[in-house]
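name: query_chain
kind: protein
chains: 1
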Amino acid sequence: MKKTLCTVAALAVGVSMAHAIFPDKRDSAMPSVVRLVVLQNGAWQNAGSGVAISSTWVLTASHTGGTHVETAPGRRIPIQQRIAHTVTSGNPADLALLKLGGTVSSTSRIFYGAYTGTGGLKNRTCRLVGYGLTGTSNSTGWRLIDNTWGVRRAAQNVIDDLRTVTVNVGSSTTPRIKTGQYLIFDLDRPGSSARGSLGGSAVTDEGGIAAMDSGGGMFVQQSGSWQLVAINAMTGTMPGIPTAYHYGGIGFSVYLTPYRDWIARISGVR
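structure:
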């Protein structure tokens, strides 16, 4: 996984692979969110994030890397198998399941909720959790801070929209085309009534995803606990909407409900 943003092509949306959580609010309540790492030049390097959905299976974005998951500093479990989402026609989604060579003790339940209707996800406050860079706010948005990855952090936001988006998570010479349904949120200015690009005002601890944390989780409160509804994947712009780290910038998380059967078939988790 590159340490810089990887620009990708999209239909009507300009996006970058997302790998971060800001602001710098450390998280101790979501140990199911793990760090993906790889040993390079004698040191363990960040390669993304994931969410343990059972003792031996982790759900992540397919464009992440890594050979191990790290559940705590110094505790690493090898990844035995990486299974990317596939379809018989069209493009697969940016999702992958990781089969572990050991067990984790903390897992998250998936909430396969409808987007609209009674109890739906639209306009719900969500919690974004992952590892990676953090940032500081200013008058126009957030300034990311180099070399701050490796810490599990959390931010809150509001689910504003649901869209189907096609992106290239590879390169122009070696394309990897993904099409998925994404829950979308924007970055509202904390402490201000100014509206973001998709509507609404900032919630407490408002933040977003940025650079160094794809594969982390989007959670909502359901039945008294935080349950996983999407996998954080990318940030982006649309016509008339600012860049990702400016107020009004948007983030995209892969909505898990459409992929319920695939997740159950591979992992056995229902």
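note: Helices lie at 260-267.
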